[in-house]
Amino acid sequence: xxxxxxxxxxxxxxxxxxxxxxxxxxxxxxxxxxxxxxxxxxxxxxxxxxxxxxxxxxxxxxxxxxxxxxxxxxxxxxxxxxxxxxxxxxxxxxxxxxxxxxxxxxxxxxxxxxxxxxxxxxxxxxxxxxxxxxxxxxxxxxxxxxxxxxxxxxxxxxxxxxxxxxxxxxxxxxxxxxxxxxxxxxxxxxxxxxxxxxxxxxxxxxxxxxxxxxxxxxxxxxxxxxxxxxxxxxxxxxxxxxxxxxxxxxxxxxxxxxxxxxxxxxxxxxxxxxxxxxxxxxxxxxxxxxxxxxxxxxxxxxxxxxxxxxxxxxxxxxxxxxxxxxxxxxxxxxxxxxxxxxxxxxxxxxxxxxxxxxxxxxxxxxxxxxxxxxxxxxxxxxxxxxxxxxxxxxxxxxxxxxxxxxxxxxxxxxxxxxxxxxxxxxxxxxxxxxxxxxxxxxxxxxxxxxxxx
Length: 453
Hints:
Order of helices and strands: EHEEHEHEHEHEHEEHEHEHHEHHEEHE
Radius of gyration: 24 Å
Structural class: alpha/beta
Helix content: 25-40%
CATH superfamily of the largest domain: P-loop containing nucleotide triphosphate hydrolases
Oligomer: single chain
């Protein structure tokens, strides 16, 4: 595999570069505020689309300079990042219009001679595309497209442009190492569960919330199978992260979520799931990680809460309404009750994460689904599907080749995904469906799609 593609997000301050960076990387590394000059350095992140991974640079807003001593340094770093990138996304502000500094940056891009895509951000309505783009045509930058990063409009087309010509670098995730991250709010019993799973006291257990401040990776074997168990610091709501050590712990936990294959989200059975637990699941979905809801302290909860299982199921359905098929396992971390069922669910999830479906099989099923419920038309044109194939990603992901990807709406993707999950027993797996143009995959100023669901 050749070196990873490098993509720079470039433009003047406050045009939406950091928002785009966060959307592409699925993180919140770049601070987003409605004021210029918030980003003063180059942020690096990893993006991935249609099995292709790439590195993204979020550069500081480039200005003509002012009397602040750090302005020249910021400008130099941003220009250097653009020079070292393989592709450049030049972001313009469709809300405030063309700025003289945009002309200077356009000339700089012209001198670089590197592939670039001009994106006019903050155009929220499709009917405003032509008007929003009109004044930017004088820059002579093609291709040019409209987008709204905040509303996730146009991002599919940007990602398609990024990976164009990079298909040879597609992922092949065939490693057999299963990484399990144990996550949850402070004092939910995570470290106790880790020790019980390992059969020994390997991590500190304390009734004081926040005892674990680092993420600890522990390789172990069970019944001839290799695992890596990750005990993470408890996640609290941002308002409660008063100490620097807690903020660092939260960042490490979020990194563990990204690096794991399966998350065991531990909740206190006496309390049930909360909105903070929902945020952890949302984070997992953003990173396409499988989640098992581990309900701890069931020995006590069964005694104290009447009809405990029914009460818990109702709360799970309410709090995780966006993830209706989340697997649930009941345990007592102290006694080890339910541990066998937890490992059975982990192994089952791992098998589903690695499931491979033959192209002929998935096509026969897929075309039966769209025959019964065709996709809505787009701009009075019928959506035509040519074929679908599974990528080499984990969890299972599928790429459908169509005549007009913009017509495959998020709601229709969710519909097809639900059918695939039910038919192939992929319950609880965050599978993905990409819609890709079958031929002539070229971005024009009319490109304006929906974010992948």
